[in-house]
Amino acid sequence: MLTLSGQNHTEGSFCDRLSRRNFLQIGSLGLSGLTLPRLLQAEAENPAKKRQKSVIMIYLVGGPPHQDMIDLKPEAPKEIAGPWRPIATNVPGIEICEAFPRLAQSMDKLVLVRSIVGSQSGHDAIQCFNGHDPRKLTPQGGWPQFGSTVARLQGPHVESAPPFISLCYPCTHGPYNEPGPGFLGLSQSPFRPMGPTRHDMVLNGISLERLADRKQLLQSIDNFKREADASGMMTGLDTFTEQAMGVLTSSELAEALDLSKEDPRTVERYGTGDPTKFIDSNGAPRVPQSMLVARRLIEAGARVVTLNYSKWDWHGGKNNSIFKREAEDFPVFDQCVSALLEDLHQRGLDQDCTVAIWGEFGRTPKISAQVGRDHWPRVNSAILFGGGMKTGQVIGATDRLGGEAVERPVTFPELFATLYHNLGIETEHTTVEDFSGRPQYLVEGHARPLPELI
């Protein structure tokens, strides 16, 4: 049976002290989990899907080392270059780290940005999710993240799927987490299958492994519905709430979150990780299957899907050098990102779905005494693909040590202007109102999309 569990509440509680809000949360279903932070206003059957533009944003928690990944400096001194060697890609003249052989053979479908400037220096995810510098003054309530702004401007593509879905795992280090809807208000919050309330409703007695058994899952849902009706728990809930309670068996969203419905060969291609194992305790789990779930959610009608992946804050230390950690993470990253890239192309989504991969900042050129690289906001990097962009190119360049941008500096506002452009949102004149009713532009400084990509 389905078991409800939650914290004690007073106002608006059921007889077992479970709040109405927590009652509407659903989680821990399948490999990905499922919650309902918003009520689905949908009919039993979805309308025919229309072609839509979308974005998958992948946040590399903690700041990835650009000079060990996509901007190697093999001619630099050893204390700068490190042990990794560059390999040729399928685009003449472009090289990346030898630990990414699959991505190297897909370089014609990628864009590498090697010269992001203006990053903040601390572990704050804000800039990665909305493009705004947290050191500058912000409107009351804070800047909304990208997905919230898109949800406000474009709304749902289909009634059965929220426009903005977050697959980000909640990190114990607060600044690693998404900034939220800001001055747009809670109504523009993302649907969060991996959120902190994902355990409010659980399938009691069914492990993650047994959730792959669709028959047992459906039987548990049926039992829950019968018990809920018999106990009167559904009494007083509005129509949309009742529709939300049926999401597991009627919605494309539930199908998208259930990886047991995916071809096992595709799941294997992406790889799987343990969603309960948070890297270094305060990072995100290393969960490649999140990228597959993101693709499935885009197909289900989501406009924006965000996810956080692993932890890249490699300062070194005893038995934990940066190169040991890279040897663990790089091959998994190569496999799942290349799988997502191939998947989008094979399914005809490469012209409509943009993928952006980045972290807070780059890493120091010089390897520290602890065999690590520290925070380096003076240059950052990104990997982009899809969205109908002009791929097979590198934008920008750094100096011989990988410490300064010396060619085509790029800013986060320009990158976000590009994402908005790919969704059909023009940033030069488009505004959203803050709490005071004042119109606010979407990106700082009237930044324009990168002309190299459009």
UniProtKB/TrEMBL annotation:
This is DUF1501 domain-containing protein. Pfam families: DUF1501 (PF07394). PROSITE patterns: TAT. InterPro entries: Alkaline_phosphatase_core_sf, DUF1501, TAT_signal. It comes from the Bacteria. Coiled coil: none annotated.
